[in-house]
Amino acid sequence: MRTHWWRFALAATGLAVTGFFADASWYLWLPVLLWCALARSVRTGLVVGLVLLALQAWFVVPHGLGWSGPWVPNAMEGYWLYPLLTGVVCSVGLLVDGRWLVGVVWLAAVVGLGLLGTAVAVLDEHEGAAPGDEGVLPGPSGLRLGNAEMRCGSGHGANCARQVEATGEHAHEVMRAHLTSHGYTSAKPLSNNDERVCRSTGLVFGREVCAELKDISATAVKVTWYVNRR
Predict the structure, then answer these.
(1) For the purposes of burial, counting CB atoms within 10 Å of the CB of 78, is it exposed (0-12), middle (13-18) or buried (19 or more)?
(2) Separation between Cα atoms, residue 17 and residue 57, nearest integer Å
(3) What is the mean pLDDT of residues 155-170?
């Protein structure tokens, strides 16, 4: 048991990183867990394991905190870029351990699964699936939010948006502050003068989500958000 302490430490840390954020995919923990099972030596196991933990944190923490920017990975990159990076790191570790065949098979397997996941995600987005919560939901505690509705344009694969009505004192200002805390910044106003804020993520291919705020009354605002096509 004592000789395998590092395996349990790496696996537990990876589990904690993923479990801390409710919307984090457990798929991002698997490379760390599998590496703990396959690694042989303590030195290689720890070095590669720490690199994998750093990659996992990079793909989980900024997204979970609602950060944005060109250095923040988006959800789509979690399907293809993360498996590619972890596959290369693990393959190098296995080669150092003298297990080149396992390393080659590992790299091919994770890249293949990543491409499959990407294809499914792209197909789902092409079919006009509504965006996720995108930091809009759950809303700020000071407002009462109705049920989020999905609105889609006409035609096959039409873009979809979600909208929700928020009520409470200073609803517009409170909701804007909530969106700002989740990485949204002011964008070009709409032709009807409704406020619009957007946030972008993506290391390789950018993904932009925009939210529109339309005042219904002094204490109510309707928020509509969608993914901008690029």
Answers:
(1) buried
(2) 7
(3) 78
